[in-house]
Write a structure and sequence with these properties.
The chain has two helices and twelve strands, in the order αββββββββββαββ. It is an alpha+beta fold and 164 residues long. The longest helix is centred in the first third of the chain and has 20 residues, at 2-21. It starts with a helix and ends with a strand.
Length: 164
């Protein structure tokens, strides 16, 4: 028994450097982007289907136009706090979660139904995360301001790390 215990300890000690030498994959630094919703923005949602070993999730992409000046976006625009967009920087915000679902009502002519509470599009869930998504969706649909922290993913999309 002592020999087995010693062998297991030796194996664990030998494996230790393998476990600690791999660097942790952290998100790159995020930067603040100020946006104003409006008709120039477009929201696209996708849901990947759950399968064995894979939890389904919702992804939301918000397409916008880069504002011509820093700090003050117009309707349908986003801008950095301290500068304008550089050529090639993506004009799409992207976020994904396993904890969100979307509910919406659309008329036969493709318009979002509106009532006394506003547009009938809701990000639903039991977390603060769903409330933040819902706030952004309604800001886009109602021409309101919102801010997000993002980083550029290979000049394809701006990945949202937090909603302010």
């Amino acid at each position: 028994m002592k020999t087995l215990t010693r062998a297991m300890c030796a194996l664990a000690l030998a494996a230790m450097p393998l476990l600690t030498s791999a660097p942790a994959q952290a998100d790159p630094p995020s930067y603040r982007l100020n946006c104003m919703g409006g008709p120039g923005m477009r929201i696209v949602t996708n849901h990947d289907v759950p399968s064995p070993g894979h939890v389904g999730a919702i992804a939301m992409t918000i397409y916008f136009t880069a504002a011509p000046i820093a700090a003050l976006p117009g309707p349908g625009q986003c801008t950095w706090v301290d500068r304008t967009f550089r050529p090639g920087e993506p004009q799409a915000l992207w976020i994904r979660s396993e904890n969100i679902e979307f509910a919406f009502q659309i008329t036969g002519d493709g318009r979002v139904v509106r009532d006394a509470t506003g547009p009938r599009v809701n990000a639903e869930g039991m977390s603060a995360e769903s409330a933040n998504w819902d706030r952004v969706v309604h800001a886009v649909l109602n021409g309101q301001r919102f801010s997000v922290m993002v980083y550029n993913v290979d000049n394809r999309v701006m990945n949202i790390t937090s909603i302010l």
